[in-house]
Specification:
Layout: E1 2-11, H1 15-26, E2 32-35, E3 51-53, E4 62-63, H2 64-76, E5 81-83, E6 86-91, E7 96-101, E8 105-116, E9 120-122, E10 138-140, H3 141-149, E11 158-162, H4 166-177, E12 181-187, H5 196-203, E13 210-212, E14 214-220, E15 227-232, E16 245-248, E17 251-254, E18 258-260, H6 263-268, E19 292-294, H7 305-325, E20 333-337, E21 341-345, E22 348-349, E23 352-360, E24 364-373, E25 376-386, E26 392-398, E27 405-410, E28 413-414
Length: about 425
Amino acid sequence: MQIKNYDIAVIGGGPAGLAAAAEAYRSGAKRVCILERDDHLGGILNQCIHPGFGLHTFNEELTGPEYAARYIQALAETGVDVFLNTMVIELSENREIRAISRTAGYMEVRAGAVILAMGCRERPRGALNIPGTRPAGVYSAGTAQRLINIEGQMVGREAVILGSGDIGLIMARRLTWQGAKVHAVCEVMPYSSGLSRNVVQCLNDLDIPLLLSHTAIELHGEKRLTGVTVAKVDENMAPIPGTEQYFACDTLLCSVGLIPENELSEQTGLIMDKVTNGPKVNDKLMTGINGIFACGNVLHVHDLVDHVSEEAARAGREAAAYIKNQPQMEAGVPLVPGAGVRYTVPQTSLGGENTVRFRVQAPMQRVRVQAVQQNELIYDKPRLIVTPGEMETVQCCIDPAKGPVEIRIVEGKRA
């Protein structure tokens, strides 16, 4: 067994891992490595050939591969070691990583700090429990995206998309451009779960119907999908009799949410947030175990890769600072989701200037976003509209000597 020693080890070579490793190296950690299970860096970006990336980071519009290439090139100019085709199978509280590599075999990496950047995966079709047969032609939206954009294989010609997540919306446009007919995008919630710009560009501009408060209730076909029956749902998500619609199709794409890849985090014993499905962290992005940090979609699902890169760069800087100073774990001030807010990241703060990201529970118009500490407003700004599909940000100064900080939405109405 090979034993390797590093200042910082980054698990995952997608957008979060790339940004975290490069920033950690620039911040003074000279022995940095990335452990990536795939045979190339970039993660999901490599199959996202559509534009829309980099507007915040590079002030220009890039495709996913172009965005990844910027970071891969920046990483190549550092001394960061990259281990591809390397699967991490265990992480201990002492920051000892055990992994299996095609070339190195079984290896152990001992690190002064570890950054978790494993990303997320799609929620499987099996979690939906749709009645009917199990024919070919049912894909997750991300699988279909990979088949079309990387493998060059068309998945079908007549499609229905279940769920209005961003990947599903983008695939509605991609299928249409490839000559397929997308009959409808069905969303069980009364609002889209994707970015507003994707609803406009991928559905409205192509006259693809978005059926809100609808879900699939039956699949038809034996060897190959022949159709999907959808129905409207009530406030309890139960199908309403008499609202059924049948769409003849050979393809169903499921875009029903993303799940942070946190089996390794749970195995290590990190305290998890039941809402985000990611580890709980403080404002340094450090988890409940000293020297283990988390960032990107493994922490909470982001809407923009630019936000992933920004957060990951912060994790890289904080990890580099940690190995220099070795600070002791502090409890911090709790950040509490208030009215209209689903969750906050981070969950605690050590005080000072903080960037707090959160998602709302439902679309609302003409609201005020507030942060309150001991009945004092430390942040109060208006928003024309907020929606669960788009992450919100609060920047405020937190007093570590005072009590919890509540993030809340006020003076709004449902959109």
